[in-house]
Design brief:
Chain A: Pfam families: GatC (PF02686). The complex is a heterodimer of chains A (95) and B (493). Chain A is mainly alpha-helical and 95 residues long. Chain A has a domain of 39 residues. Helices cover 32% and strands 4% of the residues of chain A. Chain A is built from 3 helices and 2 strands; from the N terminus they run H-H-H-E-E. In chain A, strands 1-2 form a two-stranded antiparallel ribbon. The longest helix of chain A has 15 residues. Chain A is flat, with a radius of gyration of 23 Å. Chain B has a single domain, classed as Amidase signature (AS) enzymes (Alpha-Beta Complex). In chain B, helix 5 runs parallel beside helix 6 and helix 9 crosses helix 11. In chain B, a hairpin with a 5-residue loop joins strand 10 and strand 11. By secondary structure, chain B is of the alpha/beta class. Classes of the chains: A mainly alpha (95), B alpha/beta (493).
């Protein structure tokens, strides 16, 4: 499997990272080096092996379904690049 | 007492309890050292006022006779830990200006134990790197030097390693996703342990690859690692993968008796082209353990070769998901927008400006292996291989092996910039001996064990059974005692 510049462009878009056109060939080359390395995994016989979901066989703990936190909008917004009237502000999304 | 910054945690604890020295004095000694060590690039956000205040409180606690082992010990904290009111950037531009309103559980546990925070430590951006060269703050530099070259302290916990090796602090926190505690510890002649997955809470630690990330101590001795690890770990309701099992007194488990312990030497770790010095170090380590009464056995971990490729699917996949939260909305950097730019342009421009090259590369690789059509071929296959890697270890432990001895790294520290034009895969090979341990969720420790021909430190790694950090530390303690590594870098900074 080899990645061309068109695929690299698509991946960059999916990842929401702006990549200028002139950098796409280099990026594709990097992807191909890494994916070439990853291809080794095809040598392994994984028939009948379940994909690992948890490295330590533990059951996730449950807790009471109650509110334990909250009422701190100022703290939540304190690091926002743009916050107004108790909200995160972003460029207009709806025309 | 002179040069208080050079104390180990154990010696400082004893002196503090006896009243021979105050935390304020040790803290002041460290702050003075830090001030003169800009050339190492280890500390990136200094908190001297906070440190003095915490030292004063620790001294009061000591005087009142209420003093946990870590009370009054000045530490450096890796920038990956969120620390309340103190910049926490994961060495990334995208978190510029971020000042958490909360404290990570691990750093809170340390504060509760009375430790003093001297400041935040340099690292690779989002812990992605093996040389501390991907940091927005610039490189951290290894205090060890053999010629004109500046050497890497390793990564990603490079600032932590450099600071501890140069005696800027008594110890530091690190985190380890593929070797980020153990490789830098080996490169700088210090001790570093990554505990079993689930021992330390991940809450408040900036996430890289959630199924692999673990915090751990980086210290000047195995005893110090035992003391500090105990203070760091423990169950936390805020991390669903945090283990609800008792934390033993690890230090009390350093008995010096390892007679009859079975130590495995995995043949797959004998890599082609391995430097003779590393081979010798490894053989010497096995001899030391044999002399201490352990039984050395040859073992096989057949899927070792596939650990790095599996890691470079799983870690980027998890990273691409974890790093999706950096979108210019909630915290950190937001790109300047042009007229007509919508929210999509804001995301894409913010992330292009905020993430460095390596982070972008990994996020995009992760996006690719998780994308429709490739999820099974890459991600699910890697998770299956991971299950086999873990099974290799399970089988060996079931056969009675107590711990596994390997080299910590395939080489000593290399020069900063030397890998600049290399293919990214070449840098990834640094983690070849350490990454298996993260994939299997096991505890692993790196202990300085010798110097190479140039005079640079080399480390040995011991891998333990899950939750048996105490036993692992005890075995490591024997290697430490017999290796007698006392070399220190000479001060040039």
């Amino acid at each position: 499997m080899s990645i061309d510049t068109e695929t690299a462009r698509k991946v960059a878009h999916l990842a929401r990272i702006k990549v200028e056109d002139d950098r796409l060939p280099e990026l594709a080359e990097n992807f191909n080096a890494i994916l070439g390395f990853i291809e080794q995994l095809n040598e392994v016989d994984v028939d009948g092996v379940e994909p690992m979901t948890s490295v330590t066989p533990m059951r996730l703990k449950r807790r009471e379904d109650v509110v334990t936190d909250g009422n701190m909008p100022e703290k939540i917004l304190s690091n926002a690049p743009d916050a107004r009237e108790g909200f995160f502000a972003v460029p207009k999304v709806v025309e | 007492m002179t040069e208080l910054n050079k104390l180990t945690i154990a010696d400082a604890r004893d002196a503090l309890r006896k009243g021979d020295v105050t935390s304020a004095e040790i803290t002041e000694a460290c702050l003075t050292e830090i001030e003169g060590a800009d050339a190492l690039g280890a500390f990136v956000h200094n908190t001297p006022d906070l440190a003095r205040e915490q030292a004063k409180a620790a001294d009061a606690r000591l005087q009142a006779g209420d003093a946990p082992a870590m009370c009054g010990i000045p530490l450096g904290i890796k920038d990956l830990f969120c620390t309340k009111g103190v910049p926490s950037q994961a060495a990334s531009k995208i978190l510029e200006g971020f000042t958490p309103e909360y404290e990570s559980t691990v750093s809170q546990n340390l504060l509760d134990a009375g430790t003093v925070m001297l400041g935040k430590l340099n690292m690779d951006e989002f812990a992605m790197g093996s040389s501390n060269e991907t940091s927005v703050y610039g490189n951290a530099v290894n205090p060890w030097k053999v010629d004109d070259r500046q050497l890497t302290p390793g990564g990603s916990s490079g600032g932590s390693a450099s600071a501890v090796a140069a005696d800027l602090c008594l110890a530091a926190t690190g985190t380890d996703t593929g070797g980020s505690i153990r490789q830098p510890a080996a490169f700088t002649g210090i001790t570093g342990i990554k505990p079993t997955y689930g021992r330390c809470s991940r809450w408040g630690v900036v996430a890289f690859a959630s199924s692999l990330d673990q915090a751990g101590p980086m210290t000047k001795s195995v005893r110090d690692a035992a003391i500090m690890l105990e203070a760091m770990c423990g169950h936390d309701m805020k991390d669903s993968t945090s283990a609800d099992i008792p934390v033993p007194n690890f230090e009390a488990m350093l008995t010096g008796d390892i007679k009859g312990k079975k130590i495995g030497i995995p043949k797959e770790y004998r890599m082609e082209g391995m430097p003779a010095e590393i081979e010798k170090l490894w053989a010497d380590g096995a001899d030391m353990l044999r002399d201490a009464g352990a039984e050395i056995v040859d073992i096989s971990l057949p899927h070792t070769k596939y650990a790095l490729p599996a890691y470079y699917v799983i870690a980027p996949a998890e990273a691409s998901s974890n790093l999706a939260r950096y979108d210019g909305v909630k915290y950190g950097h937001r790109a300047k927008l042009e007229a007509g730019d919508g929210i999509d342009e804001m995301y894409a421009k913010t992330r292009a400006e905020g993430f460095g090259d390596e982070v972008q590369r990994r996020v995009m690789i992760g996006t690719y292996v998780l994308s429709a059509g490739f999820y099974d071929a890459y991600y699910n296959r890697a998770r299956r291989v991971r299950a086999l890697i873990k099974k290799d270890f399970d089988d060996v432990f079931a056969a009675g092996v107590d711990a596994i001895l390997t080299p910590a790294t395939p080489s000593a520290a290399f020069g900063l910039g030397e890998m600049e034009n290399a293919d990214p895969v070449k840098m990834y090979l640094n983690d070849v001996f350490t990454v298996t341990v993260n994939l299997a969720g096991l505890p692993g420790i790196s202990i300085p064990a010798g110097l190479d021909a140039q005079g640079l430190p080399l480390g040995l790694q011991l891998i333990g059974r899950p939750w048996e950090e105490g036993d692992l530390l005890n075995i490591a303690h024997e290697v430490e005692a017999r290796a007698g590594f006392v070399a220190k870098p000479s001060k040039w900074w």
